[in-house]
Amino acid sequence: MSGPQAFITFRNVSKSFRDAREGRVVHALDNISMDIHRGAFVTVIGPSGCGKTTLLNILAGFEQPGAGRVFLDGQSIDRPGADRGVVFQEYALFPWLTLRQNVEFGPRERGMPTSLMQDVTDRTLAMVGLVGAENRYPHELSGGMRQRAALARVLVNDPKILLMDEPFAALDAQTRGRLQQELARIWMETHKTVLFVTHSVEEAVLLADRVIVMTTLPGRLKADIQISLPRPRDPTSPSFNDHRRALEEVLAEELAAEPERLASL
Amino acid sequence: MSLERVLAGFAIASTTGVIFGVLIGWYSVLEDFCDGLINFLRAVPMTAWVPFAVFIFGIHESAAIFLIAFGSFFPIVVNASAGARQTPRILIRAARMLGTPPQKLMLRVVLPAALPAVFTGLRVGLGLAWVLVIVAEMLAVQGGLGYALWSAYQFSRLDLIIAAIISVGGLGLASDRLISLLARRILRWQKGTTGQ
Lengths: 265, 196
Description:
The complex is a heterodimer.
Chain A: E1 6-18, E2 25-37, E3 41-45, H1 52-60, E4 67-72, E5 75-76, E6 84-87, H2 99-109, H3 114-127, H4 143-155, E7 161-165, H5 173-190, E8 193-198, H6 201-207, E9 210-214, E10 221-226, H7 238-257, H8 259-263
Parallel strand pairs in A: 3-8, 3-9, 6-7, 7-8
Antiparallel strand pairs in A: 1-2, 1-4, 4-5, 9-10
Chain B: H1 2-26, H2 28-43, H3 49-57, H4 61-85, H5 89-97, H6 105-139, H7 145-154, H8 158-186
Helix pairs in contact in B: 1-2, 1-4, 1-6, 3-4, 4-6, 5-6, 6-7, 6-8, 7-8
């Protein structure tokens, strides 16, 4: 499975947990194996409640796989680390720190000298377009600015990969569109490997080189689709629409497969 | 004199209360162990500890300070542990993925997340400290406002009784103001997120 270029490798990863409310075992991930190349932008899409967030949490080191292993750059993953930056849907900024202090949190933890830290913080804030808001607290920022701050906070650590868990789902459509474009630009500038979980077909096609479609529980890989549209991408172009329709058909097939599960959501 | 006793007792209670509270709230093993003990001790009225304190320490400064520290310890520890327990898991995860080692999580995330609750505990504890200093001075030690109050009663001086009561109220109010001010400064990141 794992070729010489594989940067992230999932090898036979399974994960199940007990649903506390219904008292039955949920197989969130069932024998997942895949390779991701360095520098790729991969989106993971699937019905709500499939194991896509679990997949991301395992790579982040927040959860341990029940079986199988995950490797990053040849290293087996067993705990969280600053080499894997996570952007959460809920931002998860520290409310007691100003925007700047939030961004400096990582460098401080890693013992970076102050002058260097100020320098990289300034550059990162400029990259995500947050200059001028440094001294505000998170609750004084708009949703879009909070998510920029959350992105800056991990970019400043210069991680090997970015893990994003539906980062723009809580934003209004306009803000979401702008942040998607800026993320695409930042990705091209930094050449980071990105694993991006979403439930939006449009978002998946807009951002990804490669879209992984997951099944509803048990979570398996249903399809692995390459998107080779030129960038920057135009969501109104016919070729974009072809990709979107193709992906939507795959997803619809999956939703139709388990109607009673869908009804319960 | 009363003020010094309150300060000494409250200083002991707030340091130990915050440290224990955050530890108990964060480490669930400790919590299981300590919760029963704390709730048992908390259920005993503070006045019931007066004979115990005098027996151990004698009619001495330390008896009063023990009572104050011991009594105001409980609201502080209970609030601090509740605050620590409610630390959002996502903030713990955020710190971990930014490079915070597990042994530093308490200082970096749990303590600041618990601070609003800690200040609630400190305010309640300080109020209780004023109650207890009067009780201690009436029953266990000489000098101070409680002692003056009791002496005034024995000499049937209502004017002095009222003067003592007003002094206690004034000091209590002033110290509460002071701690509220401190809380507002330290918790200024909360400004505009709570209440109306």
